[in-house]
Each structure stands twice: as C-alpha cells, then as structure tokens.
Amino acid sequence: MESCTKSPDLYSSVAPVCSMEDLAAPAASSMGFTYMVAASQTLGLAVILMTGAWMGVYRGGIAWENSNLQLNVHPLCMIVGMVFLQGDALLVYRIFRNESKRSTKILHGFLHALALVIALVGLIAVFEYHKKKGYSNMYSLHSWCGIAAFSFYLLQWLLGLVFFLCPGVSFSLRSRYKPLHVFFGVSLLILSITTTLLGILEMLLFKISDSYSSFVPEGVLANILGLLLVAFGAALAYILTRDEWRRSPLAEELALSMDFKTLTEGESPAGSH
Amino acid sequence: MESCTKSPDLYSSVAPVCSMEDLAAPAASSMGFTYMVAASQTLGLAVILMTGAWMGVYRGGIAWENSNLQLNVHPLCMIVGMVFLQGDALLVYRIFRNESKRSTKILHGFLHALALVIALVGLIAVFEYHKKKGYSNMYSLHSWCGIAAFSFYLLQWLLGLVFFLCPGVSFSLRSRYKPLHVFFGVSLLILSITTTLLGILEMLLFKISDSYSSFVPEGVLANILGLLLVAFGAALAYILTRDEWRRSPLAEELALSMDFKTLTEGESPAGSH
Question: Catalysed reaction(s) (chains A, B) (predicted)?
C-alpha cells in the first residue's frame, strides 16, 4: 500500500491523493516512532530523577519553610513543569492519534495547565528564597530568559484556549493561527530547556565555584543532567517535526470538519481552501 | 493563481498538482519572507556588534599575544562562526532560490567551512588562554555543550560533503539522508546558540560576580545580547520551517533529477518513489 503521508522527495511533482480510509489509518505505528517516544520518556524521567538526586544528595534536600532548602524547590518544579510536562503535552497528538481530536485537545490543554501551575510554584519558591535572603531578583540572563519563557508560555496557553477550545472561532482563523501555535510551541520548549541549562550553570557557579574546576561529582552530575536535557529536547523536536508521524484526521472528523467549514465559511465542502 | 505549495489545511484530502512552470516559479517572493530575512540579518549583525562592544568597552579589547585579552577572541569568533555564519549557511537555499542547485550547495558548504575555521580559531584562543593562566579545561557545562556542538558540526559537514558533493552517491541514499541532515543542521544551530548563552553567563559570573546583581551596564548589555541571540535563532528557525518558503526545484533540475534517478536506481522517471 502506498504511504499516505507527504513524500519527502522534493523532485516528485505529483502528490499522492489519499482516500478517507487511508487518512484515518494509524500511519505512524512504525517501530521508529515507538522507539523514539520510549527514548524521549526515558530521558525525561532520567532528567527528573537526576535533578531530585542533585538536590537530595548535594544540596540538602527540599523544604518550603526552610529558607536554604526552599531554593531547591525551584529547579525540580521548573524541570517537571516547564520541561517534562510541557514536552509531553506536545506529544499527545502523536501518541493518541486514534483518539478523538476533542479529547486529545483537552488532554493537551490540561497538561500545559498543570505545567504552568507547577512552574508557578517553582517561581514563587525562588522569589521567596531571594526575599528571605535579601538577594536581588531578575538580574541574571537565566532570570531574563526564564521570565520571557514563562510569560510567552502563559500567553500561548491563553491564545490556544481562545482559538481552539472556544466555540465560534471560524475554521479559517483556526487554520491560519495553527502553524504559529505549533512553531511557538516547539520554540518555547527549546527556550525552556535553554533556560534550564543556564539555571544549572548558575547554581554550580554560585554553590561550588571553588571546586567545579576539579571535576567534583556534583559538577559532573549536573553537567550530565544538562546533556540529557539537550537529548530530551532533540528527541522531542525530532518526533514533532517528522511529517510522517503527524496526526491524520479520523474519517468522521474529516466529514465533520467539512460541515464546519461550510457552516462557518459558506464554502462548498469540495471547494479548495 | 493557486499556490503550488503544500496546503497547511490538514483536512484537505486532495493535494494540489503543480505543473513544472509552477514549481520553478519563485513562490517565496512574498513580503513576509523578505521582512523575516531582513530581521534575521539585522539581529545577526546586532549580535556581532554588541559582542565587539562588550569585549572592546568592558573587557579591554582583543589581542592574541596578551594572555588577558586572548580570552576575548573566543566569544567574538564563536559568535561570528558558530552562530552568524552557521545560521546564514542554512538560509542560502531560501535566499538564492533561483540560482542553480549546485552553486547554492557549494556556497552552503563554503559558509559552513568558513564558520568551522573561525570557530577553530576561537577554540584555540580559549585553550591557549587557559594554558597560559594555568586554568583547568573542559569542566563546565558551557565547555561540554560547546565541544559537543563543534564536534557534531564538523561531523555533519563531513557527512554533507560525502553525501551531497561526492559523485557516485545514489539518489535514493541522498533522499534518505537529507531529512536527517536538515534536522541536525537546525538542531546544531540551536545547540550553538544555547552554548553561547551559557558562555555569556559564565563570563559574567567569572568577571563581574560582585556587581552583576546591581544591574551594572556590562551585565545589562550582555543579557540583552543573550535575548537578541534567542531572537536570531527564532527568526532563522521560523524561516527554515515554513513549507511555503522551501526551495522548489528549477524546471531543468526536475528533468535532470529524473534522468539521474533513472540512471542510479533503474526506475522509470514516471515511477513512484
């Protein structure tokens, strides 16, 4: 059976035309996809466990009331929220490709909301820690990138809610906004990972500046954590940018979307977009 | 005239079929493309100028023999090579879309080679500086990410040379390697920009750790430089990931590639890939 996905062959001038049955088929059930998702989840869990180990073994553990340990809440919350959950929220359209669009969309929005709440706890932790210690806020490159990433992420979530979950937004407007939503989604994940690397380096240079250059275990552990974060980002970006692993609309959605388009745009279902 | 690019409408089951004349037309000559390229180049030049100003005004200038000033060669070379030239090398297929594929390919390879040579000078500068000062090498997250970025970039260049410039590599092998080459190309640019941000933060925490939290001009300048680097990366990633701005094969290339495919694969020019 000829594949229904877009051919990567740039020289092919004739695009394959697919039937509705073809479009509804789980075209991405290849082993490659499964392995890549498994690798990304393994990397994501390893990153969370290593951050926990770093805070637990070398930084004295985590506590909200103790001003010294409150700082340690920050990296753990930001990595769980802004990296792992944000990343996995982007994957749901690839993994749950045979579920209905609406339930996948709600899961996508819910995971991002959870990520935002956990990240907010992480932000409060570091601002409270600074206040208790009398340290300045918002002067470092890590904090500038972090506030930019969090603010744009919140804005992206709100725009996504308005465009894709509010009824009454036209098919045409959704179609025009969607490529921007996808581009900024991947970009914000990458910016979040970059900010995390800046945070790791900043914490190392604040806490172990005297021994970092002697390859002490804490420094090596945190450096490896940084490289695993890069690998997690690369694995997710790879999965998200493969044309052949994109979610295809289910047969009933195709029919429904045609009706919706006709209703909102007044176009013939058979008309070109 | 109906656009010849792939429709972003996921619900359209019928892909447009284009004539060879359509494919050869400069479909990306939209104002949006021109503005985005202009914005990216403005950001790229601003980043180089600000790095020069940082080194010149606050770090005492640049010199190879003076061990204190040799360090300052490093950021300037890495930003010119690993960020600006590497980024612009990725843009040549979009900007020179009406030039022949072969000359565009040679320019792409040449810009990357120039980037590698300039980056190598920047690497030698920092290793020599460390040696003269008796500092340790390769212990920080910045150095780990930097060596990974440079090594994979060199490997990517060598693989690109073998697959795309050596005669005798089959059309099928080139087609299968190309999506990986493109994915790793954009990924390495992002990793290079991330590494640059780590380098900026590291230099600030080494050189102005006492005054950074007081929002001194040097710290603010370097933070803005970091944000402009993020914007440069985002502008380039946007240009490179728009389907409608991809280079379409020229009419004569289409005919030639069919012949090449037939010769190397033994397929009929009209056969499906």
Answer: monodehydro-L-ascorbate radical(out) + L-ascorbate(in) = monodehydro-L-ascorbate radical(in) + L-ascorbate(out)
